[in-house]
Design a protein that fits this description.
Length: 196
């Protein structure tokens, strides 16, 4: 019986030794995931630069995906209007310096829905230069989260999207403030007034 107990203890010790790293690995993964979770400050990526000239940082809204076709079309119209109201030059793809591809999603929450947007901004050379994203919580009841995304919600998401896009574009070289573009280089002579 003592031999059987000793064998049982050694088997149990081997089992603990083999499974302990798995438990520790899970702890590390949870800690790492928590460290990578975005905080509230991360969503305010840019501030609108005063005096920026957004006309030179033109954009073409190339696509809005993820939402049902009717909602995507309605949202794209709202986003276009919101962008134009913020002096963003929304142009055809052939004339744009920047391209925006977007994705909308709606998922149910305990007390409504979460409407998330992701906008990737690309240069004319097809290089992604920025990702803008956020989530807007909507209160309500129902099985379809898109049904909770009514006109007011879509307008709000479009406005927030346009604000984020305007802030990013205002910090690009193309949108340099007019005063900065008009200033003469430091080595340029300033001229003089004749003596009186």
């Amino acid at each position: 019986m003592a031999a059987h107990a000793a064998k049982w203890k050694s088997t149990l010790a081997l089992l603990v030794a083999l499974t302990a790293p798995l438990g520790l690995g899970a702890c590390v993964a949870v800690e790492t995931t928590a460290e990578l979770a975005p905080d509230a400050a991360a969503s305010s990526q840019f501030a609108l630069r005063a005096g920026a000239n957004l006309a030179q940082a033109s954009v073409a809204i190339v696509s809005v995906e993820g939402a049902p076709a009717a909602i995507a079309a309605d949202f794209e119209r709202r986003l276009d209007g919101a962008a134009r109201s913020r002096d963003i030059a929304v142009v055809d793809a052939g004339k744009a310096r920047n391209f925006v591809r977007g994705y909308l999603s709606a998922s149910p929450t305990e007390d409504g829905a979460a409407i998330e947007y992701v906008w990737d901004v690309f240069t004319a050379q097809k290089q992604r230069v920025q990702r803008l994203n956020d989530v807007i919580e909507v209160k309500g009841a129902g099985d379809d989260p898109w049904a909770l995304a009514g006109e007011a919600v879509l307008t709000s998401v479009a406005a927030k999207s346009a604000d984020d896009l305007a802030a990013f574009l205002s910090n690009t070289a193309e949108a340099a403030p007019a005063a900065a573009a008009a200033e003469p280089p430091a080595e340029t002579a300033l001229g003089y007034a004749p003596p009186r």
